[in-house]
Automatic annotation (TrEMBL):
<feature type="region of interest" description="Disordered">
    <location>
        <begin position="66"/>
        <end position="108"/>
    </location>
</feature>
<feature type="compositionally biased region" description="Low complexity">
    <location>
        <begin position="96"/>
        <end position="108"/>
    </location>
</feature>
<protein>
    <recommendedName>
        <fullName>Uracil-DNA glycosylase-like domain-containing protein</fullName>
    </recommendedName>
</protein>
Length: 281
């Protein structure tokens, strides 16, 4: 038993003496006017009442007014523990070798390119690299430069050529987002597109302007400088001719001399010229 009274007994004593222990925070509608209280005196009276009621409750229970407080139980001494810091492990040096995928394959690349494809005649196919984003990808100025190149290698061009466009990567929607879109997948997709839309295998001459056009039609692991010039195509009667992009030739006219060196061997090894189209503008 302790010398304290319960909260309910305390509330009963306060209610009998007319002491209110709570006050509303806001004025209630239709409520009576509140009484004036002197809060310092009210606090003092409340403390005296609490002390008086506690004494009366102890006397009613037959307990002395003052109970001796028991001596606190001494707490057992806390045994110090030895805190040991684990030895710092030497940091592993990261390998500086290029990251590779499983089974020795190179890590997936994130190449982005845009190719514009058109067929000047039945024997020739032109694949030109354009900026990956932006407007006016292939303008009349590009077409004028291309016609000059075709005349230089003794090829004719039909008016109003149908034009195709290939953009990589394909996107990240549905099943397309789940497929691999590395450089090898890009090469397969470009070759499938050119074969289905423009008959790549039956073209005797394929002109490739720009690094992306050369790498993703011939071999993505070879550099652009290795691919420049004229080389055998997919079969004995086909030739691949690689040179700078049409955009680069328009921005840097000095590259036209290098482009001519790349394409000039076509004049020494060339099948009979196709007949010019009868439709003229």
């Amino acid at each position: 038993m302790t010398g304290r009274i319960t909260e309910q007994s305390r509330q009963d004593y306060l209610d009998a003496m007319g002491i209110q222990t709570w006050f509303p925070r806001t004025v209630l509608p239709n409520a009576l006017a509140h009484r004036d209280f002197d809060f310092p005196e009210a606090v003092t009276e409340l403390e005296e009442v609490q002390e008086l009621t506690a004494r009366e409750a102890m006397l009613a229970l037959g307990l002395p007014e003052h109970l001796e407080q028991p001596e606190p139980v001494p707490e057992p001494p806390v045994r110090p523990t030895l805190v040991t810091t684990p030895a710092k492990q030497p940091e592993k040096q990261e390998s500086k070798a290029p990251a590779t995928a499983k089974k020795g394959k190179p890590a997936p690349a994130t190449s982005k390119f845009r190719l514009v494809t058109l067929a000047p005649n039945d024997e020739c196919l032109v694949i030109a690299e354009m900026p990956h984003s932006g407007l006016n990808q292939f303008t009349r100025f590009h077409m004028r430069l291309l016609n000059d190149i075709l005349r230089g290698i003794r090829h004719t061009s039909q008016p109003d050529l149908p034009m195709g466009e290939f953009v990589w990567p394909l996107g990240n929607v549905g099943l397309i987002g789940q497929m691999d879109q590395d450089d090898h997948a890009a090469t397969d997709a470009v070759c499938a597109y050119l074969s289905n839309q423009f008959g790549l295998a039956r073209r005797k001459l394929v002109l490739l302007f720009g690094p992306a056009a050369a790498r993703f039609v011939i071999e993505p692991e070879r550099s652009f400088e290795e691919l420049r010039g004229v080389q055998p195509g997919m079969h004995a009667e086909q030739r691949f001719a690689v040179s700078h992009g049409l955009n680069e030739l328009m921005k840097l006219p000095t590259l036209k001399a290098e482009a001519w060196k790349d394409l000039k061997p076509l004049l020494t090894d060339q099948s009979p010229l196709p007949k010019p189209s009868t439709e003229e503008n």
